[in-house]
Amino acid sequence: MNPIDCDVLASGGGMAGTVAAIAAARQGARTVLFERHGFLGGAATAGAVGQFVGWETRAGRRVIAGLAEEIVQRLEAMGGSGGHGHFVMSTGHRMDRVEYDTEILKVVLDEMVHEAGARVLLHGQLARVSRRGRTVGSATVLTKGGLLEVRARFFIDSSGDLDLMARAGAPFLGLDEGESLQPATMMFRLGPIDFAAFDGMSAQTKAALAARGVAEGALPRAALHCSRVPGCDDGWFNVTRVTIDASDPFALSDGERQGRRQALAAARFIMANVPGCARARLVSFAAQLGIRETRRIAGIATLTADDLRNGAEFIDTMALGAYPIDVHHTGDANITFEELGPDHVYALPYRIAVPQGLDNALVAGRGLSATHEAHGAIRVMPTAMAVAQAVGTAAALLAASNQPAPQLDPATLREKLRVAGAIL
Asked: Does residue 286 register a pLDDT over 90?
């Protein structure tokens, strides 16, 4: 196949890559987005998370808007979401969320990318990357038509696992002593559910049932968390736990098997024991595991948990967040969940998206330069979308001005983001 040229290439069409591509294209950049599935959305669609959490502080102050909120509004207009709401987590904490229909979300993302003018390549897998010095030259994508070389002025790695950065030889952050990668989850859909009975369970009843499921080996963690599919009586359950390094291809393959086995056992326990689920049947597994953590880039700055706790301010703040520090443990059924204050907001600086040693590459999604603990807070999809809007906008500005990524003027970026509806 003949090579193609563009200003910005986004590698991976999850929520981060899709938002980054829309943002870059709306700034006038010739943008290409490639994705391995036949649809966009990543963890939100293929992983079937079923909800976006972490839009506001506990006190109700919204910290994320812009393109992320536009997606919610389009979902609502198409009957794919009831908009913003709240629920009680398995930890007992009250949390805001947007439940959505995964199938309608696929169409919303298709339309937004198409309207923005970005060129989408589905069923595309990254094959190799060329690099010379501090510059990435091209990414070669394996497509149904063969190998396609894409030459771009700027590259955004939005693959989650940072496959493009790995092939380009970029440096990554390691785990400290006592830390381990957060486990993955295989979501599964049950229905019909009597939600009056399910939601009517007391916290004590739900906790006792979850503990019993763990004790019997039917539930990998002490949770009965379900997000309802808008417009019907089905729900997506988030209760499984698969301990793998998803950047290892054989471990990932075996993890998919483990996830489905766990999901089936959990579904059977829920149908047999949980109020409102007696008539439910297993409708589907997610198309893939939901991965919480793999590689994290070594950026020109690294965000720490103390930065989040202290509300550190940065001259190059590109997005805000309010979601707590949420770390799922490996080796037990527990979660560390640290709330940071009733109206606490933290900032994410642009520099955590800039890889060390590369002038024409940025990172969007869960692979930002952050410690393992800080990553537990900033990995959720509303935050990822807010960051991705900034990264896509930055890539377009840098491609147009022919500047290296570390030299971006943060004031220019922040003004563009404010005009586009972002909260800073």
From this structure: yes
